[in-house]
Structures are given as C-alpha cells and as structure tokens.
Amino acid sequence: MDELIVESTKYVVKCLVNEDYEAIEIFTQGIRATKDDIRQMIQDYGKTLIFPPKEAFEEDLNIIAVENSDMPKYSVYFHLWTKEEGMSDLSLELTVIFEDNECKVELDDIHVL
After folding, report:
1. What proportions of the chain, in percent to the nearest 5, are helix, strand and coil?
2. CA dihedral 53, 58, 60, 63 (to 10 degrees)
3. SS3 for 86?
4. pTM of this structure
5. Mean pLDDT throughout 4-15?
6. Are 95 and 32 in contact, with CB atoms under 8 Å apart?
7. The pLDDT of residue 1
8. DSSP 30-43
9. Where are the chain's structural domains?
10. Domain 2-112 in CATH 1.10.730
C-alpha cells in the first residue's frame, strides 16, 4: 500500500509542477478541489513549483493511517518544493483510500503550514 501512496503523491506533485491541474481534477475526481481551485491555491503562493529530489519522498512524506475507517484510509502530508526556496512552507494534503482493489485519491488541501 505504501508504494501506491508514494506513487500517487508523486503523480500529483508532477502534475502540480507541470501545471496540469485538469489531470489532478480527473485523478482525484474533483471531490474537494476543481482545477480552478488548485490553480488559485498555487497562484496565491506566488512561487514556481519544482519536482523535489527523490530523497524528499523518503524523508518528508508523512503517511498516517485513519483509525476507525471501514476501509484502509490514509492521510498524506508532503511539503512542496519551489525554485525560490527549495522545500517550501506550502504543503500538499491528500487522502488515499483503498476500496475494492482500487486506490482512490482525494486532494484535501494545498496550503501554507
């Protein structure tokens, strides 16, 4: 499961860096954020996102199991990286749910910690 969570997070980060907000909306089914919402969150921060080094996903990816859930569910927190700052104060928050042999991802928020 952890590998799927890491790969899902990498995919969302890659889409953010490439400004492919529509792909994120499709991947997350737009449950909590539309492509326009995502675009606005990134624009509000005012920095240029870059893909983090490989080690960041090993050292900074926080995966927390959600207790008392009917199915395996995890909260995921990850610091985004910018050209100007390196690891930034901007954080990506996802919920990853495993249901019926499927991995579903919801984008909860992108905000400054």
Report:
1. 35, 35, 30
2. 140
3. strand
4. 0.94
5. 96
6. no
7. 62
8. TSS--HHHHHHHHH
9. 2-112
10. no
